[in-house]
Design goal:
Layout: E1 3-5, E2 17-19, E3 34-36, E4 61-63, E5 76-82, E6 91-96, E7 101-105, E8 115-116, E9 129-131, E10 140-142, E11 144-145, E12 152-154, E13 162-168, E14 171-175, E15 181-185, E16 189-192, H1 208-213, E17 268-270
Length: 278
Amino acid sequence: MALKSYKPTSPARRGLVLVDKSALYKGKPVKSLTEGKRKTGGRNNKGHVTSRGIGGGHKQKYRKIDFKRRKWDVEATVERIEYDPNRTAFIALIKYSDGEQAYIIAPQRLAVGDTVVAGEKVDVKPGNAMLLSQMPVGTICHNIEMKPGKGGQIARSAGTYVQLVGRDGGKVIVRLNSGEQRYILGSCMGTVGAVSNPDNANTTLAKAGRNRWRGKKPLTRGVAKNPVDHPHGGGEGRTSGGRHPVTPWGKPTKGARTRKNKTTDRMIIRSRHAKKKR
């Protein structure tokens, strides 16, 4: 997919850069593979705001995506590539030889009419899913499981991928986009190829209203508030907010590490923070 830039016919068009979606399917999603999606406005069951910055946005349907790919050794044909408002990646509608339909995350270079298959060991081509233990070292893959049978959790966003860099016993060693290297059980599934829509990172929304359509409300900076409203507030003139950025409730933020006592720490070979240490 290419990027589209617009002539500055209005202030909202000036600087606007979007992904060209002309090649995507223009109809509605498959009804049996969708379900209703209710807006929360960031509020919990008591009506209290627990996630700020959420509100409004266009009405959406949730597309049920097959993250598990456990229908083994049954070929499926790609019917169409679709836009999904719930994620940055595109999705592909596949139809198995027995007539069943499913949505999967569309990898790059997957086209309408291509065949994909999942199994213990299959051909290494985009869209095929197999056990990580059977993938050749150096393979680029996405939609990686962390527990066998749980469904893919790693590398599902637009343009992301994981590289399989080695094997060790019953585990494989993978390198994530963040720079982290970690062990994953070889009995977990992964899908060959990088996730579609890599140009998503190069888009420019150009106006605040486009974020409102996405359900994102504007957030006021702490330094623009009064001391009673935020720890960064107040001060004469414009201030930076101090050396240690905090949330409105005084908790460290903007890069403060919160990960601790995680059982999966032993699976991490090289932390994503290792390159930052001096």
